[in-house]
Amino acid sequence: xxxxxxxxxxxxxxxxxxxxxxxxxxxxxxxxxxxxxxxxxxxxxxxxxxxxxxxxxxxxxxxxxxxxxxxxxxxxxxxxxxxxxxxxxxxxxxxxxxxxxxxxxxxxxxxxxxxxxxxxxxxxxxxxxxxxxxxxxxxxxxxxxxxxxxxxxxxxxxxxxxxxxxxxxxxxxxxxxxxxxxxxxxxxxxxxxxxxxxxxxxxxxxxxxxxxxxxxxxxxxxxxxxxxxxxxxxxxxxxxxxxxxxxxxxxxxxxxxxxxxxxxxxxxxxxxxxxxxxxxxxxxxxxxxxxxxxxxxxxxxxxxxxxxxxxxxxxxxxxxxxxxxxxxxxx
Length: 331
Fold this sequence. Notes:
- The protein is an alpha/beta fold.
- About 45% of the residues lie in helices and about 15% in strands.
- Helix 3 links the parallel strand 1 and strand 2.
C-alpha cells in the first residue's frame, strides 16, 4: 500500500485534542536519562502517530495494531517522518503489548494512546464483513490471522447465548427475537444477516430507530465486539497501560459508545482514588494515602469532537477522549 492509499486508510478523530492532552507529557524539557517515548496501541492508518511525530518528535515510537493491513498503511505514512525517531511497529492486540514492551526493556513511557474505534478502512472494505452496506462473508475479525470469524461464532451459539451477546454488547431490546431468528435461518453473509435482523425486529423498535438507523446496527456492533473479544482487550489495556507511565506521563483513550466509555471512566476513577483509613484514626492529613494518578485539569468530563470536526468527519460525532496522568514525583 502506497503513501497516497495510506492517507485514505483511516481518518483519525480528535487529533487536536489528543495532541493538546498528551502534549505536556511529550514536549521537550530538561534532558532525560532515557528517550522520550510515545506508545500508540491502535495505530490504524497512523494519523495520530503522524501528528505526534510532527509536533513533538519523540525519540521512540512504539506502535501496535491487530490488523496487518493497518500496520502496512501506517508504515508507508510514518517512515522517514522523523529521522531521529526509532520506529517500532508491532502486530499485536492490547493484551500482548505489555509483554512486548517488557521484552524490549521499555519500562517507562511518556504518553500512550488507545483509539477504540473500528478504522474507516475496516468499515469501508466490504470484504472484511464489518458492514451491511454490501454483501460479504461474515468475518468481522480485526486480526484475520487468528480466531473464529463471525460466521464461525454464530455456528457455535444457541439462541440464549446469542441473545446475551446482543443484550450485553449491543444493548439490543429485541435480543431474544433476533437471536432466535438468526439461529433458525443461519445467515451466511452480511446482507443476509442484516435482513434477518430487520425481519425479526418488533414494529415498535423499528419505529423508534426510524429510517436513518439500520436495524442491524446494534447486532453488528455486538457481534464485532464478541468476535474480537474487545472488552477483554480493553480491560487488559486499562489494567496495564497506566503502569508504563513515567512521572508526568499521560494515557489517552478514545471511546465511541457508552459501553466503552463507561469502562474507561470507571478504570480511571479507580486509579485516582485510594481507600480511606478507618474513621476515627488520628492520622495527620500529610500521612493519608495518596493516589498516584489524577485526571488533568479541565479534562474531568473528557473531550468530544466539536461541530466543525463532526461536520467534516461524521464518524467523530460519538468520539470521546479521556485522559489519565501519573502525578509528578515529589520534589
